[in-house]
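Input.
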Amino acid sequence: MKLPVIKHLTNFIEANDEDFVVETIETLEALTEVPSLKDEELDVMGELISNLYGALEVHKMTVNGTPKKEALNTFMQRVMGSIDS
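Output.
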């Protein structure tokens, strides 16, 4: 996951609607089922999907009153904590 990408996507959600991101996730997840895809292509799609889900989580925190910077930091700490475990 990349914090700048998640931040950019969070801004996109604020300016538009989270439904765009949800539909993009659904589209990418459907594409991962194409049997002819290479591992590298699946890795890129997986990274995109992870960033999109991350942006939705950060957006949810901001809607619940957490300042954006704090929400981004909290999310990334949670991700890093799950990697270290």
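The mean pLDDT is 93.
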